[in-house]
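Researcher: Please translate sequence to structure tokens.
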Amino acid sequence: MKVVLLQDVKGLGKKGELVNASDGYARNFLFPKNLAKEANAQAMNELKNAEASKQYKIDTAVAAANKAKSELEGSTFVMSAKAGQNGKLFGSITAKEISAEIKKQKGIDVDKRKITLSSDIKTCGVYDVEIKLYTAITAKVQVEVKAI
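Model: Translation complete:
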């Protein structure tokens, strides 16, 4: 019997998959526990619509990431911080501050966990920063730190 899984079932499949299960297993275990429903025309239509919706969300996320990449790629963000002698900062420039600066200058909201710093920013200078916008979509920007 073909069933559409409503939850992950160990040894059978993941949520939303169309799988073949024996009649007794489906009627006595899967259906009473609401782990699956019979794969009739309505269930198949819902499954197809759910997959189309999922793909649409992925496509829009990829398009947004590519747009953000084109805006960010090659940009230089100038940040100022208090510094002592020899350009050594009091503290450091963090990913959170870089994210706020990108939001302020470009209007693009970047999560601080997606910003990869090659090294800690503790002195004045120019640093290369990589921003992971989506799976396999990254933008490389520069952060220039100036002393106040």
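Researcher: Any highlights?
Model: The chain has two domains: 2-66, 68-147.
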